[in-house]
Write a structure and sequence with these properties.
- Strand 11 (about 205-210), helix 4 and strand 12 (about 230-235) form a beta-alpha-beta unit.
- The chain folds into 2 domains: about 5-180 and about 365-400, Alpha-Beta Complex (Quinone Oxidoreductase, Chain A, domain 1), CATH 3.90.180.10; about 185-335, Rossmann fold (3-Layer(aba) Sandwich), CATH 3.40.50.720.
- The radius of gyration is 22 Å and the shape is globular.
- The protein is of the alpha/beta class and about 400 residues long.
- It is about 25% helix and about 25% strand.
- The strands form 4 sheets. Strands 5, 7, 8, 9, 10, 17 and 18 form a 7-stranded mixed β-sheet that branches. Strands 13-12-11-14-15-16 form a 6-stranded parallel β-sheet, with helices on both faces. It has a 3-stranded antiparallel β-sheet with strand order 4-3-6.
- The protein is built from 10 helices and 18 strands.
- It binds NADP nicotinamide-adenine-dinucleotide phosphate.
- NADP nicotinamide-adenine-dinucleotide phosphate binds near residues 104, 210, 216, 234 and 389.
- NADP nicotinamide-adenine-dinucleotide phosphate (NAP) binds near residues 105 and 216.
Length: about 400
């Protein structure tokens, strides 16, 4: 294999960043903040195996990554830990040392081969990560240098100690905070879906299901910002307390309160907008609870992901009648179809976060039975934790906590 040209240079400042489809023309970074961290300059590169930064911390020749070796919605059955060579970035690519990776409900749809049924195992798992650029190809060096911190998402490969990422699919971030990771998929989904499909108006009633989770927490906040009355479903009082703290007017802990009865009794006029992630009977209830001209946004159907079919049965025979009688609508939303809105969504959310106007709750498993999700192998525990409904906020794995003396804490 011919190695691509590696960067050999001294300290060129990164050009204005982000890139490709998401790039914010004319700004320093998509997130609007020029990284304040000192740059590390490559002092030695080799065309063969690895290269070094000025600290002399060499990149190892091998690393661990999670690979889907068998198609299954059972993540533990589908995915194996493999030790492989650290990959070499191509000309327009970055080699990122992952610090945090994000867990998504759809990780098990991906391992079941539901994203692209034509792809056969083995293939890499994990949608999103945040880490440090430790190597890069020549054309990628026009915008990045070693030591830059970037976040990225894409199809597969984040569940690894090192990931090669196309530079144009990376987003510079000002610091190594896991909160930035919450915005890439979870936050962006809520922001764009609410904006494009919700058509929220002040005073309307909005129902968010799985409200205390990765994407639900943002749907709650954006609905509240739009002046709506917000109802959020969750499975514990602790989550209910969190929902209150982010502006949810009526958290409903469905493990102690009957959701259908509560909605009927407290919202007899119906719900104007539903941000629906659970599917099955919850989706049916949401359809039946719509107000006249109500809008139901299908975000996901997590209750079915662990089944062989990937979806829980939905009794939709009379759906056309129900929608017609209420002039209501039901629309699906899939983030990759709304890439044209992505740049604005990220920039806006980052500004809100910087001003303290947006809570980006992260759950690294500190309260989990076996403790914090540290190291790549804990991705398995983190997926189980989410599917047990234990998470409060976005589930994040700390792949490589910093060692003493590391500047990127
Ligand atoms: N369309 C898109 O582009 C897009 C993008 C991102 C996410 N999503 C969807 O958004 C939903 C949430 O995803 P996420 O990654 O943000 O996960 P999450 O909300 O952080 O975690 C999942 C939560 O779902 C709730 N839940 C309800 N019924 C469940 C069941 N039967 N099994 C497991 N969990 C259940 C649990 O909260 P409670 O116990 O409190 O109910 C659990 O904490 C998923 O449906 C996902 O597919 C869609």
């Amino acid at each position: 294999m011919t190695s691509p040209p590696m960067l050999l240079r001294l300290g060129r400042r990164a050009a204005p960043s982000l890139i490709g489809r998401y790039r914010a023309a004319g700004t320093d970074t998509l997130f609007g903040v020029r990284p304040a961290v000192p740059r590390r300059f490559i002092i030695d590169t080799s065309y063969s195996a690895h290269f070094m930064d000025f600290k002399g911390s060499s990149i190892p020749s091998s690393m661990k990554k999670l690979v889907v070796t068998k198609l299954s919605q059972d993540f533990r059955e589908a995915v194996s830990v493999r030790t492989v060579a650290v990959p070499t970035p191509g000309d327009a690519e970055l080699l990122v040392r992952n610090r945090f990776v994000g867990i998504n409900a759809s990780d098990i749809n991906y391992s079941a081969g539901r994203y692209d049924p034509s792809v056969k195992p083995p293939f890499d798992a994990g949608f999103e990560g945040i880490g440090e650029v430790v190597g890069l190809g020549l054309s990628a060096s026009s915008r990045y240098t070693v030591g830059d911190m970037v976040a990225y998402f894409g199809s597969g490969g984040a569940f690894a100690e090192y990931t090669v990422v196309p530079a144009k699919e990376s987003v510079p971030v000002p610091s190594m905070k896991p909160e930035f990771l919450t915005l890439l998929v979870s936050g962006a989904t809520a922001y764009i879906a609410m904006k494009r499909l919700g058509n929220l108006a002040k005073g309307e009633t909005v129902l968010v299901t799985a409200a205390a989770g990765g994407t639900g927490q943002f749907a709650v906040q954006f609905a509240k910002q739009a002046g709506c009355h917000v109802i959020g479903t969750c499975s514990s009082d602790e989550k209910g307390g969190f929902l209150k703290s982010i502006g949810c007017d009526r958290p409903i802990n469905y493990s102690t309160e009957d959701l259908a009865k509560t909605l009927r009794k407290e919202y007899p006029q119906g719900i104007d907008v539903v941000y629906e992630s659970v599917g099955g009977s919850v989706l049916e209830l949401a359809v039946n609870s719509l107000a006249n001209k109500g809008r139901l946004i299908v975000i996901g159907f997590i209750s079915g992901y662990k089944t062989a079919a990937g979806i829980t049965p939905f009794n939709g025979g009379t759906l056309p009648v129900k929608l017609l009688q209420k002039s209501a609508s039901m629309r699906g939303f899939f983030l990759p179809h709304f890439i044209e809105d992505y740049k604005e969504a990220l920039r806006s959310m980052m500004q809100m976060f910087a001003k303290g106007e947006l809570v980006c709750e992260v759950d690294c498993g500190d309260m989990a039975q076996e403790g914090r999700f540290v190291g790549l192998e804990s991705v398995f525990r983190a997926v189980d934790y989410m599917y047990a409904g234990r998470n409060l906020g976005k589930v994040v794995v700390d792949v490589a906590p910093p060692t003493v003396g590391d500047s990127k804490l």
